[in-house]
Amino acid sequence: MYIDYVSTKMGTDSVPRFSRGNTLPLVQLPFGMVSYSPQTERLEGQREWFFSPNKPYLEGIRLTHQPSPWIADYGTVLFTPQNDAVSSTPEGAWSGYRIGESVFRPDYLKIKLLKQQCLFELTPSERGCAIRLSFDEDEGNVFSVLNIDGKTTYRFENGVLYGTNDHHSKDDAKEFKMFFVVKFLDDVAINADINDDKCACHITLKGKNAEARVAISYISHEQALINLSSESLLDSFDEIRARATEAWEEKLSRIKVEADEERMRIFYSCMYRVFLFPHKAYELDVEGNCIHYSPSLGKVCKGVRYCDTGLWDTSRTQFPLFSLIAKEEYASILEGFLNDFNECGFLPRWPSIGEVGCMPSTLIDSTIADAVVKGIGTPKLHRALLDAMIKHATTASKERCYGREGISEYIKHGYVPCDLYKESVNLTLDFAYGDFCIATIAKCLGDNKIYDEYSQRAKNYVHLFDKDTCFMRGKDQAGKFKADFCPHHWGGDYTEASAWQASLFVPHDIEGLASLFGGEDKLICRLDEIFAQKPLYKSGSYGGEIHEMTEMAQADFGQCAISNQPSFSIPYLYAYLGDKEKSEHWIKRICDELFTVDAFPGDEDNGSMASWYILSCIGKYQICPGKNEWLELTPLVKYKL
Fold first, then answer.
1. Is the pTM above the cut of 0.85?
2. Residues 6 or more apart whose Cβ sits within 8 Å of residue 616
3. Diameter of the chain by CA atoms?
4. Which of 218, 252, 286 is the endpoint of a domain?
5. Is residue 528 part of a domain?
6. CA neighbours closer than 13 Å in the CB half-sphere of residue 401
7. How many other CB atoms sit within 10 Å of the CB of residue 232?
8. Checking CA distances to 401, which of 150, 213, 238, 639 falls within 20 to 30 Å?
9. Residue-wise pLDDT tens digits, 215-247
10. Average pLDDT over residues 175-186
11. Torsion sign (Cα): 230, 233, 236, 241
12. What one-character DSSP code corresponds to residue 361?
């Protein structure tokens, strides 16, 4: 089975100063609404890095939605079986466990807690899970639900625990609560001791063995019970696990690969990452209709919703991969994005659970355009999404987390001025690409007026090209390039990059970019220079080193910082310009040297880096989502779609 190749721990050995993925070993169904992860500990200043694969202890199993430690968690609690000294805090409840004897799989978690002498097993459903506890002793056993962040409240009735948690961070989410129910089977739950001060609940259990079923909702406890029923969570633990295994096997087998053992393990660990996000954020009512909590309105609305994806990252590789292997899911996700627009007035950039807006621009444009040119979704959906895209291409948002920051000045000058906005080069290049995407959709829908207008705007990238240095540079309102330019300075006018990485992001017009350099041969020379350079960097506007700088230097592929999204297309530009051999050389080296079954070369943002690896292995890559054009290179594996 393909699931046997998956390592959920790939990328988990990370810290804020150095990312090998910044992932969690999530037990979850594909696109599931809720995940589960062991929590080893949370250190002061690093509280979102709560799992280490090398620490032989844990505080419990965390119900989590965290898409990235940089985004943080929401709607989260900790499950911990206890006996002996019962603690109401995670820090007091920790226990040793044997790493080598534990089982970490997408469909199943199995850990023996040594202090409690309790075997903890868990298998997921879309909006819940089944838990099986096996204690060595039959007295003094409790099942604790502990608070992590925010406030958790409890009510215990007839063997069922009803709880809420209101935690969310960095986002806009009105009246948010996660409602959860924990139902114990076979009357094993005797009573509950609720500690309001610590937001903890300890449920006394009868005997050595206990099973519980968990379901969550963003709507109500009643809806959580509906979710528990509709997902057949009262079936046996083994039946629920079998369904989880089947769900993962179906997704993983959408690309059937033959390769050596190591490559198979990395490949399918990446496939697992691809299908974790975005999370479903909708539920089914008693009649089977899709409904969802709207964070912008603070009420229940009809239709689907998805969250926990950063479009600045995932638009480049994950969604193009979805266009090959997950077309139906892709169309549903777009419907969810349109629902967000209808509820808040802007398309999402980084929803989790509400809009975070932590990355610039609206690269959701390319995700929509790529679907349109490939016939994913309906013409009615495409038209509505085009109207939504035009909104953020013409109208400034009053809130920073929505729309295109600097759009009014971009329209006025043809670029975003560096004396008014940070990351002005990335904003300008992203906006020009987004304008191309709007023009592309307009052409598909026969709207010539919009096509002509946005085709012209798509050329705005030329305003920031400095012919003397052949870099894209920040320009002020007066039309002057920023002084004291150094291509090794990170930040400032660039997003998580320097001029070396950011200057080549004109995916919709490589020919036009090449002409600015003086021809395709000159652009190829720049690519050679990128790989030949030392991986030097200066802190620039960051004022100190950030982890992406460290990772670029460790990878040692010159200024191609494949550890982050701005460099994803750089090694493929050779092939686009006619030199496949150089592309294949660098891509094979990157795949062979920087990806292991334990680690990614940098942040694995919601499937984006995993998708880059998968596409590279099968020899297919899209320089420009929004054009139905694929580069075809020599695959690193034998495969079948």
1. yes
2. 587, 590, 591, 636
3. 79
4. 252
5. yes
6. 16
7. 12
8. 150
9. 999 999 999 999 999 999 999 999 999 999 999
10. 97
11. positive
12. S
Same domain, 338 and 380: yes
Residues 182, 312, single domain; the answer is: no
Residue 265 counted as domain residue: no
Q: What is the pLDDT of residues 437-448, one digit of tens each?
A: 999 999 999 999
Whether 456 is in a domain gets the answer yes
Q: Which residues of 110-130 are buried (b: 16+ CB within 10 A; e: fewer)?
A: ebbbebbbbbbbbbbbbbbbb
159 close to 192: Cβ distance less than 8 angstroms: no
The string of DSSP codes covering 66-89 is -S-TTT---S-EEEEEE-SS--SS
Which tokens belong to 128? 């819940």
At residue 192, φ and ψ (nearest 5 deg) are -130, 135
Cα 294 from Cα 62, distance rounded (Å): 24
Nearest CA to 558 out of 504, 500, 486, 612 is that of: 500
Residue span of the structural domain in which 96 resides: 2-252
Rounded CA-CA distance 248/3 in Å is 7
In the numeric block, which tokens belong to residue 439? 């023009």
CA distance 63 to 141: 21
384 burial type by CB count under 10 A (0-12 exposed, 13-18 middle, 19+ buried)? middle
Coil, helix or strand at residue 325? helix
Q: Are residues 247 and 301 in the same domain?
A: no
Instruction: State the pLDDT confidence band at 522, using cuts at 50, 70 and 90.
Output: very high
Instruction: Provide the domain count of the chain.
Output: 2
CA–CA distance, 503 with 501 (Å, rounded to integer): 6
- Containing 63, the helix (H) or strand (E) segment is strand 60-64
Residues 6 or more apart whose CB falls under 8 angstroms from that of 204 comprise 141, 142, 189, 190, 191, 192, 193
**Residue 422 backbone phi and psi in degrees, to 5:** -70, 160
Q: Cβ distance 490 to 540 under 8 Å?
A: yes
- Is pLDDT of 170 > 90? no
Q: DSSP state, 489?
A: B
Q: Quick check: 272 and 8 in contact, CB under 8 A?
A: yes
Determine the residue type at 446: G
Q: Are residues 188 and 293 in the same domain?
A: no
Claim to verify: residue 234 and residue 293 sit in the same structural domain? no
Pair (243, 291) in one structural domain = no
> Whole-angstrom Cα distance, residue 265 to residue 304?
33
Strands of 77-136 (E only): list them. 77-82, 95-96, 103-105, 108-113, 118-124, 128-135
Separation of first and last alpha carbons in the chain: 17
Q: What is the 3-state secondary structure (H, E, C) of 508-557?
A: CCHHHHHHHHCCHHHHHHHHHHHHHCCCCCECHHHCCCCHHHHHHHHHCC
Indicate which CATH number applies to the domain containing 145. Answer: 2.70.98.10
Residue at which a domain ends, from 237, 252, 267: 252
How far is the C-alpha of 110 from the C-alpha of 9, rounded, in Å? 14
269 part of a folded domain? no
Do residue 191 and residue 318 come from a single domain? no
Q: How far apart are CA 352 and CA 303, in angstroms?
A: 18
**Contact, 321 vs 313, CB < 8 A?**
no
Residue 440's domain is classified under what CATH number? 1.20.1610.10
Same domain membership, residue 86 and residue 25:
yes
